[in-house]
Design brief:
This protein has 394 residues and is an all-alpha fold. The chain is built from 19 helices and no strands. Helix 1 runs parallel beside helix 6 and helix 8 (152-172) packs antiparallel against helix 9 (177-196).
Length: 394
């Protein structure tokens, strides 16, 4: 390999690396860096690699375009077609990452940026705590911490991925002392940020994924989970206990329980009416009122009705059941491949983080956020492209 080719390889790698890391702080910067990585790959003429999910993802993209063409307003759905650019992080990362140490560097970058973002969110929480009135809970639910993001949902999902990756790294990566401290700081601070963000779906998903990590590391350690949960409820940071109880004892419409039931039932009506191609990309919100079941009283509960607050219903209602099945095919292939891969910190981080995203996707359209989507896809690519035998070595 000549020096020019080697320099291009390094430049492409660092652009892909920086794109995967920057999504924690700026999606604009992340996408610019992704574009640069792809341009360098084109310039140096490959080699091109893609995780073994190209067929189902191509089918998913194709069915999305078909759904768009048959939509009542194709122009409105173009943002969802443009979002497929984010999927190219799979190509950029898989074509540039080669060694486990590179995945390790990326994990450490995520821990550093995640810790920084968590610290910013804690400052935001302290500011809100001092600024709001006596009924903190009611005032805070609608204006929660966001870190560097624009919405607390996006922020919570990113913190979950960093938290679970850090736990897997600490358990299985045999970290050096400074790495252990960095991963530990990320676990503590992102964990606290997740609690204070009040995102109940992420709480549940993080708890389930963390339980799996603990079980895989040391089965007896799972017993620590209810103890930790009890401690959180006793300490009750930021009135988190009230938020947890709102799952079964909501504060009227404030906690969005009824709102989500309305969106899910309406989504099912959309799927029944348009099972093959859906109502069209970006058309769920615009056509929502047409499909609300007749037995649901008006006015509707307070909440956001621009999407269905469920990944699976959203894709089925928006693009049709075949498109959803294509996406589930890709996810199933990923999970099957990883389960068959020798255990390692990277493989376990991938399974836990992807599992968390899939679980929280039952209560939110988290894959609709470009930041969450890019971070998840980058992790998928890196787990795939690092050799399993190298992973087993730590």
């Amino acid at each position: 390999m000549d020096s020019r080719q080697g320099n291009l390889d390094q430049a492409a790698f660092w652009c892909a690396f920086s794109s995967a890391a920057a999504t924690l702080v700026s999606i604009a910067a992340s996408q610019i860096l992704l574009g640069a990585a792809l341009a360098l790959l084109i310039w140096k003429r490959g080699p091109w690699r893609f995780p073994p999910i190209l067929l189902p993802l191509s089918l998913f993209a194709g069915l999305t375009i078909v759904s768009l063409l048959f939509s009542d307003d194709p122009r409105a759905g173009l943002p969802q077609v443009k979002k497929f650019f984010v999927y190219l992080i799979l190509l950029a990362a898989a074509s540039t990452f080669r060694r486990l140490r590179e995945a390790r560097w990326l994990a450490l970058a995520w821990f550093s940026l995640g810790t920084l973002e968590a610290l910013r969110s804690l400052w935001q929480f302290a500011s809100k705590w001092m600024a709001v009135g006596p009924d903190f809970y009611r005032e805070y639910v609608g204006q929660r911490i966001t870190g560097f993001m624009s919405h607390w949902m996006t922020f919570s999902e990113l913190m979950m991925v960093v938290f679970l990756t850090a736990v897997a790294f600490l358990f299985w990566a045999r970290p050096r002392r400074w790495e252990r401290w960095l991963a530990g700081a990320a676990i503590v601070l992102t964990g606290l940020a997740i609690v204070l963000a009040y995102t109940r779906g992420v709480w549940i998903a993080t708890g389930i994924a963390l339980a799996w990590l603990l079980w895989s590391w040391n089965r007896w350690s799972v017993a620590a989970l209810p103890v930790a949960l009890g401690a959180v409820l006793v300490i009750n940071p930021g009135d988190a206990r009230e938020r947890a109880l709102s799952l079964v004892r909501p504060h009227g419409e404030l906690d969005s329980n009824q709102h989500r039931i309305v969106t899910w039932r309406t989504g099912l009506e959309m799927v029944k009416a348009h099972p093959w191609l859906g109502v069209g990309p970006e058309r769920v919100g615009a056509k929502f009122s047409e499909y609300v079941p007749a037995d649901i009283p008006r006015p509707l509960p307070e909440g956001w009705y621009g999407h269905l607050h469920n990944n699976y219903l959203q894709y089925a209602a928006e693009r049709g059941i075949p498109a959803l099945l294509a996406l589930l095919w890709a996810i199933g292939r990923i999970l099957r491949d990883w389960i068959k891969t020798p255990p390692s910190w990277l493989r376990n981080a991938g399974l836990a983080a992807l599992g968390g995203i899939l679980i929280s996707g039952f209560s939110e359209v988290n894959l609709g956020d470009s930041e969450v989507l890019l971070l998840t896809l980058a992790l998928i690519a890196v787990v795939y492209c690092c050799p399993a035998e190298a992973q087993a070595a730590g």
